[in-house]
Amino acid sequence: MQNKKQDNKEIKNSLITLDPKAKVRVISLGGLYEIGKNTWIYECGDDMMLIDAGLAFPTVDMIGVDIVLPKLNYLVENKEKIKALVITHGHEDHIGGVVPLLKEVDIPIIYAPNLALALVKHKITENKMSYSNFKLVQGRETIQVGKSFSITYIRNNHSIADSFSLIIDTPAGRIVHTGDFKFDHSPIDNLFFDIAPLAQAGEDGVSLLISDSTNAEKSSYTPSERAVIPKLKEIITTAKRRVYLTTFASQVLRIKIILELALKAGKRVALFGRSMINLAAISKELGYIKIPDDFIVRQEDVNNVPPENLIVLSTGSQGEEFAALSRIARNEHKYLQVQPGDTVIVSASPIPGNEKSVNNLINMLYKRGADVIYGASMNVHVSGHASAEEQKIMLNLTRPFFFMPCHGEYRMLLKHGQTGVACGVDPDKILIMDNGDVLEMQNGHSRVVERVEAGIIMVDNANVGELDTAIMLERRMVASEGLLTVVVTVNAYGELMCEPKVYSRGLVLSATETKIGFLDKINEITKEAIENSLHNPKHLESKNKAKNKTGATAKLDLEKLQLDVKSEIHRFVDDRMHRHPLLELIIMEYTGKAAAQVIGV
After folding, report:
1. Mind listing the pLDDT tens digit for each residue in 249-262?
2. pTM of the full predicted structure?
3. CATH T-level assignment (fold) for domain 24-221+383-458
4. How many CB atoms lie within 10 A of CB 331?
5. For residues 547 and 143, what is the distance between their CA atoms, to the nearest angstrom?
6. What DSSP line would sit under 420-450, residue for residue?
7. In the chain, which residues have pLDDT < 50?
8. Does CATH place domain 225-378 in 3.40.470.10?
9. 170: helix, coil or strand?
């Protein structure tokens, strides 16, 4: 491919008047150097629009965190500029952050394709919000956002129905934003990738291509979704006992295949997991899935269906601790137990970072006597993302002047950039960017000009707050080192009012030491540390007398006393155990009143 010299005058058929003075800024708040939380900002003058608002799943070191969202500070600071949210498709890493976003800023209108729109509406209803300004968009439909952006929806192929790429005309040039895609030449829904508009855009001039990099390291082509049918059909048709099948709830086309195969085999299906139940209901309502009303078995009735006639379709393909399949594997589910001879199909691949939890799930299922079918070699899962040869097709169709790989970890972005060079893109025009980098386009030039704040926000037990690294450190310490708690009450003179109370959780002691003996030793060290602390009022009184400070009364300083005691306990535990448990020391001052003054960590 040859890249002709492009400037704004050479871009043909633009739906926006080109202006050599106009500056268009493109910023990712999530989705670069990572998989997930895809959230993009497009900005020109007083116009700002968002493309997608996604979430990510927590890494193994984010203990107790349910989901991760991009930090929205820059959007909040510029909220008066926001004109619209434009959604490409309905996966959680592209729409899972819509509700938190709406709680922070006003979005005048949300544009989305059919399934994504239904899913977003369901989320908003579930959260008891009143937002209702939506606009349904179809393939090849063009929308206008502010004065600066004209966006045309182009149907593509992905692992969810109604997935789209975007052709975006701006005053500084044309941008193709692929969203998630692959080229499936035999799609389940017979809706093919609408290649012609992309080819025309490439012919008329594309200033910047922003393209999905997830499978950049995989050569050749990603198989069609139809590739899973033979193996799934074989298992579902021939299974002599119950079949458990897990996949992403958003894999509507995969679920459609499973339900149709079960129906043809004369079997029935039970759905487990809230997201699976919700998405199946929405998909049926929209007509993506067509099944008889009595085909789905109620959860409470699953044990009334002979095992050989039941398919259990559940969430939990990523080994999530509280997902349906994980609870079934631990034998903690109200209705289901895996029995020897049952078949479990994991029709998904682990998201990077989830490999350990998925492996643990598979091991638990094997221990229950199940036959577990998983992995690429078993042909029960195919990716929804383009491999290297398909990425080349996108590059050659659009013929971009500048190319920014997106949606992938750093090595994926780098590999995709190399593919771009192989397709003729000038190496100097490959943009490997990080979240928060600001790309500025003007008059045929693109460069990174600055950074905006782009961190993460955690959602923990339905509470949203900025991720505090200190909290994460404490959680990791408790998980790996254990917890030691000491509670002490002293009076104003630094004298103990009672024996210290010592508790421990998760501490591993040596074979020669008992827990009672260890806690007794901590008790002694605590008392000695209080007695010997230089910040104990009696020692301060002695100092005052030595300095002839007559009449000066030493006051109890709980914070300084606490530091002295913690230091002595830490020293003992380190010498004795060579461990560093989280130490929670609470010192209360007895004042002779109903309430005590408390100081603690």
Report:
1. 888 889 999 999 99
2. 0.81
3. Metallo-beta-lactamase; Chain A (3.60.15)
4. 12
5. 82
6. HHHTT--GGGB----TTEEEEEETTEEEEEE
7. 1-9
8. no
9. strand
